[in-house]
Design a protein that fits this description.
Strand content: 15-25%
Helix content: 10-25%
Number of helices: 6
CATH class of the largest domain: Mainly Beta
Number of domains: 2
Largest sheet: 6 strands, mixed
InterPro entries: DNA/RNA_pol_sf, Retrovirus_Pol_polyprotein
Number of strands: 15
Length: about 325
């Protein structure tokens, strides 16, 4: 059984009445939209052809010209214009196009004569309203560079030639990308660390660098090293090495114009907080003019936010030029 579902909205209150005699032309004001195949096609299959009223319809359509080697025409390759319909699993060649290829095989009454390559088929084409659609059999053309044997039903219609989903994929005109992702819910920081382990092995950096501007008339000051408790020296040395490995500080063995004293204190967790005491340097630094925003200034930007990140050691994340 071959069925189709049309994605358009139809007027169910005024359905089209089916006639006992199959119509010769089923396109008229409508457009063929869907031909869906539920299992393998045989000569006794049924196709449901959905027609959509095209009045005021500006739906975008895609057409292409398919190179095809047709029977009884030698090695000549013809280009057949087709509409791509990914909702269709059957291909249609109009009698109008067939007549352009085989002008001596179609009579004035659109009857095919003396065409042994046209295969008669019991396949039924049925419109959306239930009306059967008459076809004159099927033909097989070798299409594309790979000479894919494309089966097309011959239908007397004013509409375009239709290339269904299977034909589009066989000729490499479309590609279907399906991907299913399962994301683990993030409950705490440990979940983030397990999902992004490489993002937690370093402190990271803000973009750009900051350059401290000093008054040209200032005189550099070199502070002497301070004395620290003996019981804290090993811990202090270990923290300095850690900061050096993280790239926060750099060991300097050459003379410099400015030397600032080192200061440290205990944090709430018992670890050391190390910083400089640049009291003389601060006096000659040229201040940048910047207004620090208040909570009222930025709280409206949090609308729709799901996560809040607190930057610890923010001064470490901003690079300074020498």
């Amino acid at each position: 059984m071959i069925q189709a579902n049309c994605a358009r909205h139809h007027n169910k209150g005024n359905p089209k009445k089916s006639s006992a005699k199959p119509p010769n032309k089923w396109y008229k004001k409508g457009k063929v939209h869907d031909l869906q195949e539920m299992d393998s096609a045989t000569d006794d299959d049924e196709f449901y052809v959905n027609t959509v009223d095209s009045i005021g319809d500006e739906r975008e359509e895609i057409f292409t010209r398919i190179p095809a080697k047709v029977p009884k025409r030698g090695t000549a390759v013809m280009k057949i214009k087709c509409k791509l319909d990914t909702r269709a699993n059957a291909n249609i060649l109009t009698l109008r196009s067939f007549k352009q290829i085989y002008s001596n095989k179609v009579t004035k009454n659109n009857k095919i004569v003396s065409a042994s390559f046209v295969r008669q088929s019991n396949t039924k084409l049925i419109g959306y309203s239930g009306e059967p659609i008459r076809h004159s059999g099927s033909v097989v053309f070798e299409c594309g560079k790979a000479k894919f044997p494309l089966k097309l039903f011959l239908v007397d219609t004013d509409g375009p030639n239709i290339l269904g989903l299977q034909g589009c994929r066989a000729l490499d005109l479309i590609k279907i990308n399906c991907q299913i992702q399962h994301t683990k819910p993030i409950k705490d920081v440990h979940d983030l660390q397990s999902i992004y382990p490489t993002q937690f092995d370093q402190i990271g950096n803000f973009e750009g660098t900051f350059h401290i501007k000093i008054d040209k008339d200032s005189s550099p000051v070199v502070h002497p090293p301070r004395k620290y408790p003996v019981n804290s020296l090993k811990e202090l040395e270990g923290e300095l090495k850690r900061m050096e490995q993280l790239g926060v500080i750099r060991k300097e063995n050459e003379p410099t114009d400015w030397v600032n004293s080192l200061a440290f204190s205990r944090k709430a967790n018992g670890k050391l907080r190390i910083c400089l005491d640049p009291k003389d340097l601060n006096k000659v630094i040229k201040r940048t003019h910047h207004k620090i925003p208040t909570l009222e200034d930025i709280s409206h930007k949090f609308s729709g936010a799901r996560y809040l990140d607190v930057a610890r050691c923010a001064a470490w994340l901003l690079g300074h030029s020498p």
